[in-house]
Amino acid sequence: MPLNVSAGSNDSLRPGQSRDAFIAELVNELTSWNPRDRMQVFRSWLKGSLSLIHLHVLTVLEMGGPLPMSKLADTLDVSVASATGIVSRMEERSLVERRHDEEDRRVVLVIPTETGLAVFRDMMEQRRAHLIQLLGRLSDEELQGFLTGMRAIRAAREAMHAHASTEAGVEPDPSHPTPTPPTDREGDR
Question: What is the pTM of this model?
Answer without folding.
Answer: 0.55
